[in-house]
Amino acid sequence: MGSESPALFVCAQAKNVADSSLEHELERRVEELGFEFVELEVAGNRAHPILRLRIDRRDSEPGRGVTLDECSSVSRALERYLDELPELSDTYVLEVSSPGLERPLTRARHFQRFVGREARFRTARDRLEGTLLGVEGDAGDERVLVRHSDGAELTILLADVQRANLIHRWETESS
Questions:
Q1: Is 58 in the same domain as 119?
Q2: What total of structural domains would you count in the chain?
Q3: What is the pTM of this model?
Q4: Are 74 and 114 part of one and the same domain?
Q5: In this structure, is residue 5 part of a structural domain?
Q6: pLDDT tens sequence for the chain (175 residues)
Q7: Contact 38, 49 (CB under 8 A)
Q8: What CATH number is given to the structural domain containing 136?
């Protein structure tokens, strides 16, 4: 299975909520539980919204990420809150999971945390891969610094990034 999600119908009502108060409230609650909020994806339809929440340990590294039991615990804690939301259909589905080896980078702190790692970026104009060098600028005007494979250093306005994720290179054992 690739890192791209299948095309899904997006629930307009739930997406509007997720773009504002719901996403912020879920992030706050996940952080209170001691985990890092990585991403919220809203899919499904108005009658059956699907909330895909990706969480991680704050100090995770490959092989030491969030566990299935931790995802279950976060799911149970958030369901009590979500069940009370009038904006969500009673038939919503909450999926809580690890971000995976090629985790999405959605916030300035994610890019800063993984300085030195390879990442893939998609903007409206370009697709590129490079090594994360850091983040500069004030909130709302952050720029991600990247070293392209040809050695050129690039600056990408964070607001222009449509999708970004870490790149995991599978090591092969030599015979």
A1: no
A2: 2
A3: 0.75
A4: no
A5: no
A6: 343 333 233 333 344 444 478 999 999 999 999 999 999 999 998 889 999 999 999 888 767 889 999 999 999 999 999 999 988 888 999 999 999 889 999 999 999 999 999 999 999 999 999 999 999 999 889 999 999 989 999 999 999 999 999 998 887 655 4
A7: no
A8: 2.30.30.520
